[in-house]
Design brief:
Distance between the termini of chain A: 51 Å
Helix content of chain B: 25-40%
Number of strands of chain B: 6
Helix content of chain A: 40-55%
Number of helices of chain A: 4
CATH superfamily of chain A: Glutaredoxin
Shape of chain A: globular
CATH architecture of chain B: 2-Layer Sandwich
Strand content of chain B: 25-35%
Radius of gyration of chain B: 17 Å
Number of domains of chain B: 1
Strand content of chain A: 15-25%
Largest interface: A-B, 36 and 39 residues
Largest sheet of chain A: 4 strands, mixed
Largest sheet of chain B: 6 strands, mixed
Structural class of chain A: alpha+beta
CATH architecture of chain A: 3-Layer(aba) Sandwich
Oligomer: heterodimer
């Protein structure tokens, strides 16, 4: 794997991604946040995030920003995933196994409808 | 946690919480010296001596105001159980370096696990941090510095589908290319 080839690949990927994002920009930004404190990691947050990235990759979903955050003080509900669709308020999910993560990505992030069975309320 | 890669993710999260903007993760596997060493160093806010003692042994803590996790003591115990150990060097306002080592061939040594996803997720999940990952296997070195990607990509988020696969395969191939017995 030579550096030059890698750089060319990267430039091509960049151009394609920019084009795709332009098409998506109208619907507003989507943010997915995964809790990665010690509690989250021990409960399987990395697997949840892996599942989220897999869904994006497999279904070629552009315009989604996936980030991490630390412990938010609800360790018993970990793994925790939060979704923000455009201007809508943040939805927090608890006990997010890879299967639940896939459901959230398909029904909420892509479909716009929250997965009520795993929504938790922050008090 | 049953993988070293999960512990690495956990320690790196500590560096993120210490407001670091440069984090280096180095792994050194040697079947020649029979040693597996890991280090995570950051340029975060650092800790004083008392704080370092407290994170190593949280149950002796006299501090009640700060939140102390259990990630570090678990990893230290795991390293010590495998003829290794852990050291923490920290300077206030300079940063922290945590290193630990294991006897490579020790029966109880955790497997490295899914390091590719650990690194990919840190790079994607914290785009404002400069990540440097070094993986050495018997003196063969693979180094991944995410500045290279970011300078090419501008403000394009790293969680775009084609970039996720690019990052994953780049790191995976890099590790595979040096892991030669």
């Amino acid at each position: 794997m030579s550096t030059v080839k890698t750089l060319e690949d990267l430039k091509r990927i960049r151009e394609e991604a920019i084009e795709k994002r332009k098409a998506k920009a109208i619907s507003g930004e989507v943010q997915v946040i995964v809790g990665m404190g010690t509690c989250g990691i021990a409960a399987g947050a990395r697997d949840a995030m892996k599942a989220i990235l897999d869904v994006i990759e497999i279904n070629n979903l552009s315009g989604i920003i996936v980030t991490q955050t630390g412990c938010i003080g609800l360790c018993e509900k970990e793994p925790i995933v939060q979704v923000v669709l455009g201007e809508q308020s943040k939805v927090t999910y608890g006990k997010v196994t890879p299967e639940v993560a896939i459901k959230i990505m398909k029904e909420h992030v892509d479909g716009g409808k929250p997965v009520q069975s795993h929504v938790i309320t922050l008090t | 946690m049953r993988e070293l890669a999960l512990h690495i993710l956990d320690i790196a999260e500590n560096s993120v919480n210490a407001n670091a903007d440069l984090i280096r993760i180095s792994l050194n596997e040697s079947t020649i010296t029979d040693k597996f060493s890991i280090s995570v160093s950051d340029n975060g806010k650092g800790m004083d001596e008392e704080m370092v003692k407290t994170i190593i042994d949280p149950f002796s803590a006299t501090l009640t105001t700060r939140k102390i996790g259990l990630g570090i003591p678990f990893l230290k115990a795991a390293a010590e159980a495998c003829n290794g150990g852990m050291t923490i060097n920290s300077t206030i306002n300079k940063g922290t370096r945590i290193s630990c080592s294991f006897q490579h061939s020790h029966m109880d040594r955790m497997p490295l696990g899914d390091i590719v996803n650990t690194i990919t997720m840190l790079v994607i999940g914290y785009p404002d941090i400069h990540w440097i990952f070094r993986y050495e296997f018997n003196d063969n070195l693979f180094e991944f510095d995410d500045e290279f990607f970011k300078s090419e990509l501008g403000d394009l988020p790293l969680s775009e589908p084609s970039l996720i696969s690019f990052l994953r395969s780049h790191i995976q191939e890099g590790i595979a290319s040096v892991k030669i017995y």
